[in-house]
């Protein structure tokens, strides 16, 4: 695996770190293939129950590497192929039953927005900026932006973002529902460190609790568009029954029932 994505697993927590800081973690060919491989491994391992996605350098992800596009691609077919590789990684994350938290300090733009949307809980810094910016260079949204942005913020706000060269502030991204939390730091470097630390706290919270149930809850929400309403109700019923049959859930339900009975006395 290329070192453009750093990958590690520690006590159930997988960490994927985009590591192309001199290009603001923009996706070129090496990063695209490393991303696909790392996400596939993280979501297929039995010992992984939560995932952190973070990045090195001053930005989270600037999307595609425009410099590489201009210097190596004679037409659009290589770009289509490269997007397909990155999309495999996006599907690995979104289709898995493993919750994913993003530590997205700095700027997130272009396809980086799609990468952010592929996580389930996003922590950003107060200095963070988030936007689309595709049309600025004559390109259209990819890497799941058109597939996920409207679901996250509504179609009108999605159009506002893709039809302007606007970068949302951290506060605006929180208000729109793009991110879950904002962390402040003394300077950009300190803030990035604090963002990573808070994202790890979120992931450790999942691990300390009913991690499998959090993962199945994520799966139910993420996979809902593929089902009709009656089908989703049936899948919910099947899932809660399957969860209740696990030793962890039965122990937690028994403890909750005992505590409730004690309070009722």
Classify the beta-strand content into a percent band: 5-15%
Helices and strands, in N-to-C order? EEHEHHEEHEEHHEHEHHHH
Count of separate structural domains: 2
How many individual helices? 11
The fourth-level CATH homologous superfamily of the largest domain is 2-enoyl-CoA Hydratase, Chain A, domain 1
> So what's the overall shape?
globular
Question: Numbering strands along the chain, what is their spatial order in the largest sheet?
Answer: 1-2-3-4-6-9
CATH topology of the largest domain: 2-enoyl-CoA Hydratase, Chain A, domain 1
CATH class of the largest domain: Alpha Beta
Radius of gyration from the alpha-carbon trace, in angstroms: 19 Å
Computed structural class: alpha/beta
Describe the structure.
With 265 residues, this protein is α/β, with parallel strands linked by helices. It folds into 2 domains: 5-208, 2-enoyl-CoA Hydratase, Chain A, domain 1; 211-264. 53% of the residues lie in helices and 15% in strands. The protein is built from 11 helices and 9 strands. It has a 6-stranded mixed sheet with strand order 1-2-3-4-6-9, with helices on both faces. It has a 3-stranded mixed sheet with strand order 5-7-8. Strand 1 and strand 2 (13-18) form a beta hairpin. The longest helix has 21 residues, at 188-208. It is globular. The mean pLDDT is 96.
